[in-house]
C-alpha cells in the first residue's frame, strides 16, 4: 500500500512509481502548488490592504477638508490675515513625532506619538547651586528647555473654538497619515514579495507562462 | 533627537501647512532647517524640488505630506523615490481634489496585476 501524501493535483500512478523523472516532476509540481497557494494568499492580502488604504484615504481627505473649513471660520472670526504664515513662531518644537518600527525586513510600521516635555534633563535646577541672590533671576537656557508651546498660542491667548476644531481635525489627520504610510509600505513590500514568488514559479514551470 | 522619533514634513499651500503645523509637527530653529514649505504663487518648481529632495535626504523625517497638485510638479522626483522611508503621502488641496489615478503609490500597485501574472 502506498500512502497518498501527494496533493490533489498529483496522483501516484497505479503501476507503481518510476524512479528518477517521475518523482522529480512530482516534487516540482508540489513545489509549484505550494508557491501558487502562497501567491494566492499574498494577492488576497494585497487586495485587502488596497481596500483598507482607499478607506483610510477617504477619511483623511475628509478630516483635512474639515480642517480647512474650520480654518476659514477662524479667519472669519479673527481677520483674514490673522491665521497664516505671518503668525508662525520663529522657534518651533515638534509636539508630534513618528515612531517607525521594522516588523520584518523592508516592512515598516509608523505610529504617531505626542512628545511631551523635551529633554527633561535640560529643564530644572542646573543653576540651582549657582542661584544668584542679587539681580533679577535670569533664565538664559530657557530657549532650549521650555516645553513645546501649543501652536494655538501663536494666534493669540483667546482663540476661537473653530481654530481648536481645526487643530483637532489636523491632529486626527496626522494619525491617519501614519496608518496610510504603514499601509503603503506594506503594499510595496507585498509587491516585491509577489514578484519574487512569480519569478520562482516561472523557474519551476517555465512552460506554463 | 534620536530619542524623540522622526519628524513629519509638509509641502503644501498656506492652509494645508498652517493646519498641520497647528497639529504640532513643525520644527524651526536657527540651527536646523524647517520641516515645512509653504508653496505660494511665486514659489518656483526648482524650489519645491530642492526642498523635496532635502526632505528625502534627511534621516530624521519619516513622512512627507504633499498636496497632490504640487506633487504633480515634481512627479519625476516622487516616482524615482523607491525607499520605504520617508513615506510620501499625497493629499488634496482646496482647489484640487485628490485623484487616485495620479497617486504614485497606487499607480505602482495598479501595475502589479496583469493578465499574464494572474495566469
Automatic annotation (TrEMBL), chain B:
Its record classes its membrane topology as: Peripheral membrane protein
Q: Name one GO cellular component term.
A: synaptic vesicle membrane
State what this protein does.
Subunit of the V1 complex of vacuolar(H+)-ATPase (V-ATPase), a multisubunit enzyme composed of a peripheral complex (V1) that hydrolyzes ATP and a membrane integral complex (V0) that translocates protons. V-ATPase is responsible for acidifying and maintaining the pH of intracellular compartments and in some cell types, is targeted to the plasma membrane, where it is responsible for acidifying the extracellular environment.
UniProt keyword DNA damage present:
no
Q: Where in the cell is it found?
A: Cytoplasmic vesicle, Secretory vesicle, Synaptic vesicle membrane
| The family this protein is said to belong to | Belongs to the V-ATPase F subunit family.
Could you state a single Gene Ontology molecular function term?
Answer: proton-transporting ATPase activity, rotational mechanism
Q: Gene3D superfamilies annotated for this entry?
A: ATPase, V1 complex, subunit F
Which terms under GO biological process does the entry name?
Answer: synaptic vesicle lumen acidification
Name this protein carries in UniProt: V-type proton ATPase subunit F
Alphabetic keyword roster: Hydrogen ion transport, Ion transport, Transport
**Taxonomic lineage:** Eukaryota, Metazoa, Chordata, Craniata, Vertebrata
Amino acid at each position: 500500500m502506498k500512502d497518498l501524501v501527494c496533493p490533489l493535483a498529483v496522483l501516484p500512478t497505479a503501476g507503481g512509481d518510476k524512479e528518477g523523472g517521475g518523482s522529480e516532476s512530482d516534487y516540482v509540481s508540489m513545489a509549484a502548488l505550494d508557491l501558487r497557494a502562497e501567491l494566492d494568499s499574498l494577492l488576497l492580502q494585497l487586495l485587502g490592504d488596497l481596500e483598507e488604504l482607499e478607506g483610510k484615504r477617504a477619511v483623511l481627505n475628509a478630516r483635512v477638508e474639515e480642517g480647512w473649513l474650520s480654518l476659514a471660520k477662524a479667519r472669519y472670526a479673527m481677520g483674514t490675515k490673522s491665521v497664516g504664515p505671518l503668525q508662525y513662531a520663529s522657534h518651533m518644537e515638534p509636539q508630534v513625532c513618528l515612531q517607525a518600527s521594522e516588523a520584518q525586513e523592508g516592512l515598516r510600521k509608523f505610529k504617531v506619538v505626542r512628545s511631551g516635555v523635551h529633554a527633561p534633563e535640560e529643564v530644572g535646577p542646573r543653576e540651582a547651586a549657582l542661584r544668584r541672590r542679587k539681580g533679577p533671576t535670569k533664565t538664559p537656557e530657557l530657549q532650549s528647555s521650555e516645553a513645546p508651546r501649543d501652536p494655538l498660542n501663536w494666534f493669540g491667548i483667546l482663540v476661537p473654538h473653530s481654530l481648536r476644531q481645526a487643530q483637532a481635525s489636523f491632529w486626527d489627520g496626522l494619525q491617519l497619515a501614519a496608518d496610510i504610510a504603514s499601509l503603503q509600505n506594506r503594499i510595496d513590500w507585498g509587491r516585491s514579495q509577489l514578484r519574487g514568488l512569480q519569478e520562482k514559479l516561472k523557474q519551476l514551470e517555465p512552460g506554463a507562462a | 533627537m534620536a530619542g524623540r522619533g522622526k519628524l513629519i514634513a509638509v509641502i503644501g499651500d498656506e492652509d494645508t501647512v498652517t493646519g498641520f503645523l497647528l497639529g504640532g509637527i513643525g520644527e524651526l530653529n536657527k540651527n536646523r532647517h524647517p520641516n515645512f514649505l509653504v508653496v505660494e504663487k511665486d514659489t518656483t518648481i526648482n524650489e519645491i524640488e530642492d526642498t523635496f529632495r532635502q526632505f528625502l535626504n534627511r534621516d530624521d523625517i519619516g513622512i512627507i505630506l504633499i498636496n497632490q497638485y504640487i506633487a504633480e510638479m515634481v512627479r519625476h522626483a516622487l516616482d524615482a523615490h523607491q525607499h520605504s522611508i520617508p513615506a510620501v503621502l499625497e493629499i488634496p488641496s482646496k482647489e484640487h481634489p485628490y485623484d487616485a489615478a495620479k497617486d504614485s503609490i497606487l499607480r505602482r500597485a495598479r501595475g502589479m496585476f496583469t493578465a499574464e501574472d494572474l495566469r
